[in-house]
Write a structure and sequence with these properties.
By secondary structure, the chain is α/β, with parallel strands linked by helices. The strands form 5 sheets. It has an 8-stranded mixed sheet with strand order 16-15-13-11-10-9-24-25. Strands 17-18-19-20-21-22-23 form a 7-stranded mixed sheet. Strands 1-2-3-5-4 form a 5-stranded mixed β-barrel. The chain starts with a helix and ends with a strand.
Amino acid sequence: MDTFRRRQSVERRLSQCESFKGWPGDKTEGVQAKTAGEPDGAARDSQPSRPDLRLVAPAVSVWVGMWLVTGWDWGIWAVATACGLSGVAALIMMWMRRLRRWSNPPIAIVFMVAVMVGSCGLVAGVRVASLERGPLAQAADNRSIAEVEVVVQTSRLSPTWGMAVVNATCQKGTFGDGTFSMQLPVVVLVSSKYAGQWLAYPAGSVVTVTVRLSPAEMGDGTAAALSPVGDSRLVRGPPTWQRLIESMRTGLSSAMRHSPAEQAALVPGLVVGDTSAMPQNLTADFRTTGLTHLTAVSGANLAILLSFLSVVARLCGVRGKWLTLVSVVGVGFFVVLCHSEPSVLRAAAMGIVSLVAVGRGSGPGSGISGICVAVMGLCWIDPWMSRSIGFILSVLACLGIIVWGRRWTMTLARWLPEWVAETMAIPLAAQVATQPVICALSGAVSVSGLAANAAAGPWVGPATVIGLVAALISPVSPTIASWAGYVAGWCAEPILIVGHQLASLPGASHPWPTTPLGLCVVVVVCVVVAAMLVAPFQPGWPGQSWGVAACDVGQGDAMAVQTADHQAIVLDVGPTGSSVVNCLNQLGVRQIPLLVLTHFHADHAGAFREVVGSFAVGSLLVPLSGGDGSAVLGMAQSMGIPVSVGRTGSVTGIGAARVSVVSAWQSDGVTADGEESSAQNDESLIVRVDLPAMSVLVTGDVEVAGQQAALSNKEALRVDILKVPHHGSARQDPDFLEATQARIALVSVGKDNTYGHPAQKTVKELVNDSMEVVRTDEHGSITISHQGKWSVTTQK
């Protein structure tokens, strides 16, 4: 009965997949037959795996255009000229193509550049005119005295001058000949005499005050600088929702009062970017070791928050589109909790792009496109962001995470737990990508930066998440919040130790020339470091021109059949972990036009997430049952991977390979010995793959009943290479093994496994059938080639 219910669940999930290709018995026979050499449509779509750079030129055009318009009076004319030249170039290219003098010009990209540059001139020009040519700006040029009404956004105390710097929005002003309504950003520079009063105003407070106006600096995104000349007056406090947010921020600080001073200062910085209490020596050590970014509101903060919310939501049973809603609410909460200033919006956009690209494994291609869209959107929302150094650092950090983060995670996961590998790899990728800009700004290279980020990385997540919990519950229960804050503080203690200890080392930060040559050297070193952080390859393996490979994934199955350069059909992916990804990387695989799961048991399908997150997968072939496949099918649906159900006799061509489903037998739920698990094993797909030089039979965990059912088509069983069923267990039909007439028997099995696999009885049967037996527990990963003669290459 449980098997029947699971089968129904799989049926429902498959019916929901828009890309589902058919049921056994329908006119659509599972995977449709294709002419040999013709790739599957989805496989064509997944080719190539190169990054999609089509949006790079438009994004750069928007960035540069906004930078010019917001920085100089002549910028608008430069942008207008560039727009006109781009439009003319597009027209010329269209004309040349019509005359067949240019076969494939990038007309669309050039035309898009013209449109983007034109939009920069329009959007930024209007915004700059309202900001720098309006009544408030003109009054500031005259340094007038004015009565203004402002809404407080953020405030901080400048330790150097003892004055308060308040970012605000001016919504009303009385100066000159009248009173003007507006919504313009201003900066309020409050002397030490009135600083305490202004610092006490929570965000969202509406305040009236008499000020002296002065011009803002060109390109800083404010209409004027306001200097109070008298006491301010509170008109009204912040709205209810904003008071709640402020109570969480102050509640977090209160929750840390029982912790040591540096812990109490660091945790608010990690959670909401509040560094007001951080001592100068701690700030200096973080700057020396390259850890300053931890206390800035960044995309990493948002990624940690969304990951935490996702885990909690899943534990509460939230699935599908509701998870997306949770993420949207989380982004909104992050923005208001950290105050919705431009740096927070920037962090939110870049954090979402990084999280989607790394978490869903969409790869560098779509990730770079996401960065380009985020750059254009942010520049249109706030043109002055194009001049922000923080914006440059955010874009570079996001780019480093997308290009290197996943790959470095999988590399480090070879000898570390995956969660530790990820917490080390992500900050390392961001550090390497941003190092040239940091060097240009500081005139120094943080020699200890890479080591500090790697050592501190695993502690950032726990400290941030527990600190966030303390902030969330502080309005309800300050006592519980204080306990959470105490734990968060000690989670942050290793970060403090790393910062202080590495900063005290001789040469922790080395002065570096900021000349073009000096910066070029830094860039080259960063690229070399990035290239070195790849999985080590074993000399002599996988060998030249391999055809079939069995990856050593422990107690599980993972096979690959090469169909073209950097392409392979993958049959099963082994248990959860990075072993199969590392193996495929070493085999040189970049694209998987067809992924076959013989059944859904964890030792065959457990690493599905890792594989689809690391490679371009064209389509997925699955059995109708054979375990609970709802998680796999749900992930395939969310990633847009076409799904087909294998049926006996269905055939497809992938490059030079021909893939046939020899048997898709369905049991009645239990076997003769009453074991349901054996019934699921017998429902494994038996798949044959034919190459010009060899053939292989992949059998999943099929046992006696399933093997006997396949004997009805003995001709299809005759192959060169046999993947021995069920890791070589004792449950084999001798007639089935003999019918394959294989030369080589591959046994995929874990070393010192508790199941006694492979059974000596089975090994003897294979040897008696004149097969050469090779085992992953003894030989590691295995490749087989046939170029005039058979060759078996093993890692061990």
